Amino acid sequence: NLSGESTAAIFKLGGAPAAASGDPLGADLGADAALLGALFGAIVDRRKITFLYRTEPRSAAPLGLVHRMGHWYVVGKVGSDTRTFRVDRISELIVGEIRDSFERPSGFRAADGFPEAPWEAGTEDLEAVVRFDASVAWWARRQLGSRAEVTEHRDGSLTARMQVASPEALIGWLIGFDDAAVLEKPAALRKRFVAHLG
After folding, report:
1. Is the dihedral of CA 58, 59, 63, 65 positive or negative?
2. In this predicted structure, what is the pLDDT of residue 1?
3. pLDDT digits (tens, 9 = 90+) for 16-38
4. 177: closest CA among 126, 127, 137?
5. What angle do CA 59, 146, 53 make, to 5 degrees?
6. 55: helix, coil or strand?
7. pLDDT in the model for residue 125
8. Confidence band for 9, pLDDT divided at 50, 70 and 90
9. What span, in angstroms and rounded, lies between the C-alpha atoms of 34 and 52?
10. Cis, bond preceding 17 (omega within 30 deg of 0)
11. Which residues are CB-neighbours of 131 under 8 A, at least 6 positions away?
12. 97: exposed, middle or buried (C-beta count within 10 Å: 0-12, 13-18, 19+)?
């Protein structure tokens, strides 16, 4: 059973309780409603949060919630960086007791802090270099997002240098290019990519 606070938070997120018939009146929130309610409360009250992300301890100043591609994400400040965490990978959430414990940046919108590409949402910090054959360069360019550094070559191929926070997401995307994409750097990530292809 949800507390009154969690239920009120769900209304603000766009959800609704079940009708007397048991049929929902609003959208399925797609995640643990109590967890979303607690996160929303922390955002509104500007309370810092600590949690396990997968199995790693994390802490953040939560700034907003975003729903993308069937998943909820919390966008927050970790030190001076803006990070994005998938809500269904969060466990053992603890909301701090101190209200107004951080300042929300002026004009901040959670969607602005959300990564453009799936491999930008995660906890790792890698720089990858990928070369795309001319036959797929146009398609790669459309999906790379504005943060990638792209170099076009005379033969029509292109090289992209990008920041990677989720290696699994990058590998999953690159597999779709078959042998028309070559992950050149870093070596450890290239080895993981080749293992997936094998």
Report:
1. positive
2. 42
3. 444 444 444 444 555 578 899 99
4. 137
5. 20
6. coil
7. 79
8. low
9. 16
10. no
11. 157, 158, 159, 160, 181, 182, 184
12. exposed
Phi and psi dihedrals of 18, rounded to 5? -70, 145
Q: What is the mean pLDDT of residues 152-158?
A: 95
Cα distances from 141 to residues 4, 41, 107, 177, in angstroms, run 47, 39, 30, 13
The enclosing H or E element of 51 equals strand 49-53
SS3 label, residue 183: strand
Which amino acid makes up residue 128?
A: A
Residue 106, token pair as written in the block: 């002026």
Length of the chain equals: 198
* Residue type at position 113: G
